[in-house]
Amino acid sequence: MSGTNHRTWQHYHVGHFLITVQLDPVADGRTLERHKELANVSSQLIDLMDAHRLPATWAVSDPAHSAATSRILRSGVGHEFAILGDSNWLGPAAGRTRFARELTRRVAQARSAGLSVQTLVPRQSAVEHIDLIVKQQITAIAGVDCQAHASRPVAMPGALHYGVWELPIVGRMPVQSRWFSHGGWSMWRRIRRAARDAATFHLLVDAPAVCDDGHGTQKTIAWLMRRVANWRDRGLVQVETLRAAATRLADVPAVKPQQSILRHAA
């Protein structure tokens, strides 16, 4: 690639990096000591994103009452809050009525507290309740985990309905298999490739799992964020929240009008 083409690629063909952090654990009877350790890891992750000026989507079960909310609000970085959907109110066993009630309550409480919440991060797919999601003015949904392959290292964002965008998760920390530096090098290669292809890479950080995994994974995440920030500063990647990504994607005109699928909660 010539120098001229390289400069043009840097300015006009930019990848997008999204990072979502799940702060709340699945209810598993953790001890008070483990909760304190998780709070410490959560604070370190917030400090890490702030140090590198990386806007992140922070997913908690109830943004209006989360212990991390005040700390995130004090940040000078453009973070966003998201509702973390748990299986006790989201999924086949919970049912449509419970989902509608819980989502409405959490969104209303967050907005009453002055928090702008437009993103849902479900642990299970919530697409079957898209009409209820639309009613709560949610514009971005984190997709379920996607298994990447060498020929398809990323999953493309997709429009659902009425301006709601699904941003598939294509990388997770901690990684399930690791062959070097807690999976950091292989993850960075995938992020770098997505940036070079002007694609979107959505990384999920599971804070409770990071807490259980130990300091090695925390160091790996810090290592990755330094490199992402460096590429951001060089103009090679744009870092944004899920809500910001949905807003950007919504600026593209729809090919054809979408039909109503709204139905009543039962």
Characterise this structure.
There is one protein chain. By secondary structure, the protein is of the alpha/beta class. About 40% of the residues lie in helices and about 20% in strands. The chain is built from nine helices and ten strands. It has helices at about 5-10, 30-50, 70-75, 95-110, 130-135, 185-195, 205-215, 215-235, 240-250; strands at about 15-20, 55-60, 80-85, 115-120, 140-145, 160, 165-170, 170-175, 200-205, 235-240. Strands 1, 2, 3, 4, 5, 6, 7, 8, 9 and 10 form a ten-stranded mixed β-sheet that branches. The termini are far apart. The model is unreliable at about 1-10 and about 255-265 (pLDDT under 50).
Looking at this protein, list some descriptive labels.
single chain, alpha/beta, 9 helices, 10 strands, globular, disordered N terminus, disordered C terminus
Question: SSE layout and pairings?
Answer:
Elements: H1 3-12, E1 15-22, H2 32-51, E2 57-60, H3 69-73, E3 80-85, H4 96-112, E4 117-122, H5 130-135, E5 140-145, E6 158-159, E7 165-169, E8 171-173, H6 184-196, E9 200-206, H7 207-213, H8 215-233, E10 237-239, H9 242-250
Parallel strand pairs: 1-2, 1-9, 1-10, 2-3, 3-4, 4-5, 5-7, 8-9
Antiparallel strand pairs: 6-7
Instruction: Please report the distance between the alpha carbons of the first and last residues.
Output: 58 Å
Question: Could you give the count of β-strands?
Answer: 10
Quickly give the structural class.
alpha/beta
Which percent range describes the beta-strand content?
Answer: 15-25%
**Would you identify the regions where 5 or more consecutive residues have pLDDT less than 50?**
1-11, 254-266
Total helices: the number is: 9
For the sheet with most strands, the description reads: 10 strands, mixed
> Any idea what the radius of gyration is?
19 Å
What pattern of helices and strands is seen along the backbone?
A: HEHEHEHEHEEEEHEHHEH
* Portion in helices: 25-40%
Mean pLDDT: 85
Anisotropy-based shape: globular
